[in-house]
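Note to self: keep these together.
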Amino acid sequence: MSAVETKLAALGLTLPAVVPPLAAYQPAVQSGVYVYTAGQLPMVEGKLPVTGKVGAEVTPEEAKDLARTCALNALAAVKSVVGDLDRIARVVKVVGFVASASDFTGQPGVVNGASELLGEVLGDKGVHARSAVGVAVLPLDAPVEVEIQVELAQ
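Structure:
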């Protein structure tokens, strides 16, 4: 078990199976020393635990937890390409999309769920640049979607 997976276990988390693509794409691809994930939905055992817009059907707190799940799914996608999460030198960028009610402006707080998980698991290697974007709708009516870009140690 990698040090990253040991840290996940200490947090009471396990790395899930890679979420199968919903369309014509790969969950993650490597280009040189970088791995780029596709947008990861907060799927748990093949299902969305909740659907709807943040600020309407979904609370910001629920959405923050869902963003954490998205980040966990993103780490699973990275592992599927590189085999060992200990190869991560740093998380370079996180992009979070939040399906938002028209008056909801708390997207950064929601995406903090992903950022905080990456920091807990990877320490300084998890510190990253980030965008948190409000959108009208996401695939399958998911409240949150997160993608990450990581640099690998050489």
